[in-house]
Amino acid sequence: MPLCHCGVVTFDVATHTPVPYQLCACSICRKVGGYGGSVNLGAIASSLDVKTGSDDIRIYNAVLRGPDITSQQPGTSDTSEPQPQQQQQQRRAASERAFCGLCSSMLWVFDPQWPELLHPFASVVDEPVLQAPDEMVCVCADSKPGWVRWPEGRKEVWGRFSERDESIDA
Q1: Residues 23, 32 contacting (CB under 8 angstroms)
Q2: What's the CA angle centered on 119, arms 154 and 9, to 5 degrees?
Q3: For residues 102 and 8, is the Cβ–Cβ distance under 8 A?
Q4: Mean pLDDT over residues 147-154, rounded?
Q5: Does residue 104 carry a pLDDT above 80?
Q6: Residue 32 burial by Cβ neighbours in a 10 Å radius (0-12, 13-18, 19+)
Q7: Which end of the chain is least crowded, N or C, by CB within 10 Å?
Q8: CA separation for the pair 60, 49 (Å, rounded)
């Protein structure tokens, strides 16, 4: 059963992909998931059953904004003045990242573009033991920094999240 680090939030969910198959390297997943991004499972949204800790679940809708000085590649120069974040164009993502409000463990991501899907973070699944995938799907290669390494083995790499979504890492 998936659970957060402190053990307060537990949940069950039915899955059609019970292996950690997708590594997302968008700036959001790298910043909330750590190192190279977030590894997700595919699940059926309507099957989500929060067993404990529902009052401690918080939702984060990421801030999407235009390029800033932190996205500049090393060794390049930008002659324009960086704008304060509040002056840049920004909006909130429609996707909802659920996390434990007590220990900050990322639990799952839900996006209304695909209302039938839910993507639990593999990092919260201790039982049952997950099997290694035969092939990884690595998404958002266009925003992956050079120092982040894709996993070894067979993989399918996408520049963005999907053909439908052009702004996952805006």
Answers
A1: no
A2: 125
A3: yes
A4: 90
A5: yes
A6: middle
A7: N
A8: 19
* CA dist., res. 13 & res. 47, Å (int): 5
* Amino acid sitting at position 31: K
pTM for the model stands at 0.76
Give dist(CA 82, CA 67) in Å, integer.
9
17 and 135 Cβ atoms separated by less than 8 Å: no
| Matching residue, tokens 């910043």 | 31
For residue range 9-41, what is the model confidence (pLDDT) as tens digits?
999 999 888 888 889 998 888 888 877 889 989
Cα-based distances in Å from 169 to 27, 95, 152: 6, 12, 24
CA–CA separation, 36 and 33 (whole Å): 8
